[in-house]
Amino acid sequence: MAGSDTVSVKNLTKSFFDPNGKKAIIFENVTFNLPAGAVLRLSGASGSGKTTFMNVLSALTKPDSGSVFFGGTDVARLKEGEKDRFRAENIGYIFQTFNLLSPFSVIENVYAPLAFAGRLPQDFKEKALISLQKVGMESFAAQKPYHLSVGQKQRVAIARVLFADPKIILADEPTASLDKNSSELVKNTLLELNKKGTTLVLTSHDPIFDDIRPDIDFNLETGALS
Amino acid sequence: MKYVFILKAVFHSISHRKFSVFTSIFAISAAFAFLAAIGCVSFGLAATAVNSSLAFPLIVGPAGASDTTLVMSTLFNTDKPAGTLDYEFAGKLASDERVAAVFSVARSDSYQGVPITGVESAYINEISKGFWDIDPMIDAKDIFGGKNSDCAVIGAKAAMRYDMSVWDTFFGSHGTVGDEDAHVHDFKYKVCAILKPLNGPEDFAIFTSLKSVWEIHRHGHHQHHHEDAEDEEHDHEHHEAEHEEHEHHHEHGEESADGKITAVLVKTKNPVFTAALEREYSENGFTSATDTGRTVRKLMSYMNKAEEAAGFFSYGTLFLVMILVFVTILTSINERKREMALMRTLGIGRFPISLMIFLELFIISIAGIVIGTFGGHLLLAFCKPAIDFELGINLEPFFFTEVEIRGIILTLAAGIFLSTAAMIKIYRTNLVEEIARE
Q1: Residue B175 structural domain
Q2: Burial of residue A138, with CB atoms counted within 10 A of its CB: 0-12 exposed, 13-18 middle, 19 or more buried
Q3: Which tens digit of pLDDT belongs to each residue from B125-140?
Q4: Domain ranges, ordered by start, for chain A
Q5: Which of A116, A161, A167 to mutate to test the interface with B (most CBs of B within 10 A)?
Q6: Measured between CB atoms, does B13 come within 8 Å of chain A?
Q7: ipTM attached to this prediction
Q8: Taking Cα atoms as reference points, which of B245, B238, B243 lies closest to residue B222?
Q9: CATH topology of domain A7-225
């Protein structure tokens, strides 16, 4: 029996119909267990389905068949509201770009997901500032995202993850458009969180992550799991 | 906190689409301002008409005058009289035991577009609610008595508009309001009194004595005759000159010749007598008569139809505007799909996101309604003096009519319906999959 924070993927299959109406299988009958604090690396060429796999894991996209269990619950079978709560409480997303919500200030972006979920802690502003401090962005707390550079935006996204302290981090090309310093900061923060027991699902072509030894490597191009 | 965030997102989105939001709100506001104008103007007209119709239940004029001409030319001073009656006729009418009082009126001149009407002191006593100012040498109860035939009593708003005070003098234009060939004559009027506001067309009128009207006519007639004569050959036959004179008189059919009046306003002792007198004086071949209340009601029903028709045009415009706003919001949703998809990945539910779209459209609708309604009424209040004067009514700028209230309800309903439609569209869309497919 897998532990309560283990991600168990069973016979997961997902396909799309291309514009010509032809069925394209993205992944088929994928099965694995990802224990808490493990690293799953998704590899494969662009368009091979890495982001789709992440979306299925986080219950944003429904699989054709199969299950994704987290803490004994099949997240794909949850009701919409429960899926939203599941994501807000357990998942931290970091994308290549477009990580921040433009209506909100930097600090609001940090605590927005928990605010929408109605789960803000008492001292949320202080905690959010501490998270920003860790990524060197505390002086930008009141600014709107459009005033920030791509690297600064990515740091705020990391601060958001630090603030929410999720059980799983889905990092989709998190350093693709960053300079070396920012990339190092992102990598180190992710590894630090992983060491504390956060499960890391990573997709990246950046050589900076080459020294990370994943527990599972899933190549979506070939379908091979190792 | 959740709802503060939702509102923040909504206002951010609104403030980032200033032009389209401004255009949408302006379009809704304009339609509502129009509805407000229709309502207030028609209410002002109706209130004025009803007030006036209560004062004089019967109007008797020359044969051939229609009901509306009699009402419009005597009570509202907006139509030319159809002809004249002998002044003695008013005396005969007064001796009828069914009649409580008669008031002769003779339309003649105008001053800068304000009609000048010849009346007797009794008429002023009948309509007056007191004077703002009056020459202390004049008997307020017999204002045109004695040698005061050149006296002019000015309606409150006409006095304000032309800054007229007691003892001022002015010259009228010969020919009534709207006459293209009206010309200034040399009869000098003297302002003897200024009436307090009556909330009726009398506020925009000038009253003078019947005698002055006849005197002006004599003078004007003589002057015209003299000018005409210069143009004609001296050997014209007498009957030809008479013919010319008749033609000229016909052209100025509304003028009150010596001893002539244009209508008699009658107060009857009983409403039954009003109907009987109307029938008698309509069927005798010499005069026309109309029941003022009935004619005003008839005019009002036409006006109501016009108001409703204008209202429906406004509703149609509002409907098109709402569709435009809806399409604008849908376009903006497409532009913001990525942001909404990001919200979903962060665990922000479909309901808060859909609610944002609902509120956006709803706030635009409400802003349009509020700005249009209050802006429209404020604009009417600002333009009230000009509208009152031009239309001869007492505009009620803050009166809400049924047409307007119906417009508000319909627009709110359309706003809620369209907002809900947009909300459902977003709720049912899997934004993340859509973005993935793109």
Answers
A1: 84-261
A2: middle
A3: 888 888 888 888 888 8
A4: 7-225
A5: A116
A6: yes
A7: 0.79
A8: B245
A9: Rossmann fold (3.40.50)
